[in-house]
Amino acid sequence: ITLVVGGAPRRAADLSPDELAAAVADREAAGVERRTAIADVAAEAGLPKRAVYAAVVAARDAGR
Predict the structure, then answer these.
(1) Per-residue pLDDT band at 12 (split at 50, 70, 90)
(2) Which pTM was predicted?
(3) Confidence of residue 50 (pLDDT cuts 50, 70, 90)
(4) 39: which residues sit within 8 A by CB, 6+ positions away?
(5) What is the largest CA-CA distance in the chain?
(6) What is the DSSP string of 2-61?
(7) Would you say 30 and 47 are in contact if contact means Cβ atoms under 8 Å apart?
(8) Mean pLDDT of all residues in the chain?
């Protein structure tokens, strides 16, 4: 018998900067403060907060 409870979590290397920025944007849309959203996404992805912040800034600049 094989029981699959859940897939393997995505590694930070699997997340693109756009995906990181989108995760932050989703949290902001849910009412979470940007600083907290960045910290949460960074913790879940196993990345430094500055890397997630850089992805958010890059996404914002690309949207201009």
Answers:
(1) low
(2) 0.77
(3) very high
(4) 49
(5) 53
(6) -----PPPPPGGG--HHHHHHHHHHHHHTT--HHHHHHHHHHHHT--HHHHHHHHHHHHH
(7) no
(8) 87
